[in-house]
Amino acid sequence: MPAVASLPPPAPGPAALRRRSFSPASASLRRAASGGGSSWRSERRLMSELERTVTAGAAERVIRGYVGTKSERAALAALSRLLMDSDPLAVPFYEAVTQARWFKWSSIHAAAVAALLEANGTAEESRSLIADSAARLESGADLALFFCDLMAAFSSRGLKRRAMDFYAQLRAMPTPLAGGGKTYMAMIKSLCMLGLAAEAEEALKEMVSLGYQPDAFQFGLVAKCYGKAGQLAEMERVIASMSDAGIRLGTGAANIVLSCYSACREHEKMLAWLKKMWKLHVAPTTKAYNFVLNSCPTLVSMARQLDPSLPLSAAQLVRKLKSASPWPAEAEVVQELLAASSVLNKAMVWSETEVKLNLHGFSITSAYVLMLQWVDAVKGGHTLPLEVSVVCGVGKHSDVRGEPKVRELAQEVLSRMGSPLRLSARNKGRLVAKRDRVKQWLATEWTSVVPEESTDQLSNASDQQTFLPILLRKLGQFFSSFVAVSR
């Protein structure tokens, strides 16, 4: 296969600017190589070499050395990451991959590189790569799949007009489409990426009429495409048609419906859908938990602002939402989720040695509600193990810089409850306490700082009354940070 033309070397400039131009590639390769089986030591050497390069030619030599010595899996993982990050070094990296002894042509990679070339303003090289790739394909099925991959790659970069050109070429092929069901599946996915829900549904119907059997994933893609456009009636119709095709409603489709309802803040529809899920024995997942709770404005505001009147139990939370929320169904939706235990059971580990709540993957709002569920579960447990902990992380995977928000929330809520859980000296993302102290704590009763009757509207007087307890609590947290206690 002809090699892809390399990008021209960058214009001369200060060393700092030259290093900066390669830093995205370094970050991408670091993540990709670590996930592709490459050792950290060799990958770190690669990063250092790329940082020292001053021309594109030097960077290409480093890349070729990497591809030539690493496994196929590691090299392809690095290529995929570079393409996802739209890094210009993906082009010379792909050229190096095509010359490796283990290289096997991939429709997805070729389409992605072609789209990147077009997005970078080198349309002629993109068309040359597409023509060379199409010429090597012997069957109509392979060519049809290539067109689908081109549609997906170009649409993901906002090149909708070019993506529609490939769709036209795909439709110009003999009917039924070469490649059969596999081609239809790829075409439906590509059309949904373009936001063409009606066209994707027509392809889905055509696929069924020709005797090909779609699965839940294709129905879900079309339904989500309608839902993202706010066409909830069409989304519901597509989901309902799954049963006509003999496909059972699964977790993926259920989550799609909840995500679309949550985007439109359709709390009544969410409530009805959750009840339907119970009847069909489809348990909510972590994603569903986040979707639903993040769509509750009153709850989100309470969890983020950490108001002094923040409810400290699930029962208090529901009562507060019923009295304060302008959305009538918001409290019922939260209550419906609180009644379920599937998410808590997955997030909680209860063994002979410890009971642990893992808050990874939860939003601030979801973490708050889950903690209330967890405390109720711990209080209702028969025998506590030796150690109790809450794992909240240190914010490495958060999109928000600064103090880890979930950890801050967990510390604040547990502190207001009078909990003995404190940050571990060995793990700053873990709150921990011993069994005896937790048992003493659970034997006490705690309420919000502000009386429940006044939680709806706080007056200036009540703010002044709560100032001293809050100040004392903050001072206690400040001085306790100097005590390195590992439990």
Automatic annotation (TrEMBL):
Belongs to the PPR family. P subfamily. PPR repeats lie at residues 180-214, 215-249. SUPFAM superfamilies: SMR domain-like. Residues 22-33 have a biased composition (Low complexity). It comes from Triticum aestivum (Wheat). This is Smr domain-containing protein. Keywords: Repeat, Transit peptide. Residues 354-436 form the Smr domain. The keyword Transit peptide applies. Residues 1-40 are annotated as: Disordered. The keyword NAD does not apply. NCBIfam families: PPR.
